[in-house]
Amino acid sequence: MADDAHHPPTRRRDAQDNRDRLIAAAREVFAESGFDVPLDAIARRAGVGRATLYRNFSDRYALGSAIFASNVAALEALAAAHAGRADAFTTLLSAIIEQQIASHALVPALLTGPGAPDLHALARRMTRLLAGPLRRAQAAGAIRRDLSPSDVLSVIAMVSAAVVGAPTLAARRRRATRALQLVLDGLVPRA
């Protein structure tokens, strides 16, 4: 994600509302029908016209990148709300996994698409987001001490891979829950 994704330009309230509705609609429609769904379906779900969609997003990759930026911003807000709490790490990890379940169709498409988001910038933001809560969880003895934020990104990628191809939201949630439980068994310190 570029810096402008972190500090979006100021928009009129109605224009910002349209953009927010498009991102929310795209998140839902991509989760239900996959990344190749006609963009008209997203505009209809958002209650806007095609021109409004294309005025905000040049293509589906730009829309997918906006979903990722929105997801990271939501995680940053969650981290701020849980700052200093002992359960902040597991709360963030659970929220990230929920986002992966909902965004399962985006991940493979955005990684290979022509308008791929700046994955290095996204990884840096996620690493900063997880670093403090991870240190506190480690200090409390809830998470093994040798786990690094980049290890956590690998865990998220593993759980994300477990949900790809699951036909329904319920199936993705079951797979993610099981994968996360298996991984967490490897994250806790050994006695």
Automatic annotation (TrEMBL):
Keyword match Transcription: yes
Gene3D superfamilies with a match to the protein in the record: Tetracycline Repressor, domain 2
Domain HTH tetR-type: start-end pairs: 16-75
DNA-binding interval(s): 38-57
InterPro entries noted in UniProt: Homeodomain-like_sf (IPR009057), HTH-type_TetR-like_transc_reg (IPR050109), HTH_TetR (IPR001647), Tet_transcr_reg_TetR-rel_C_sf (IPR036271), TetR_SbtR-like_C (IPR049445)
Keyword list, A-Z: DNA-binding, Membrane, Transcription, Transcription regulation, Transmembrane, Transmembrane helix
TM annotation in the entry: 152-171
Endpoints of the signal sequence: none
Keyword Transcription belongs to the record: yes
PANTHER family: HTH-TYPE TRANSCRIPTIONAL REGULATOR BETI, HTH-TYPE TRANSCRIPTIONAL REGULATOR RUTR
Name of this chain's protein: TetR/AcrR family transcriptional regulator
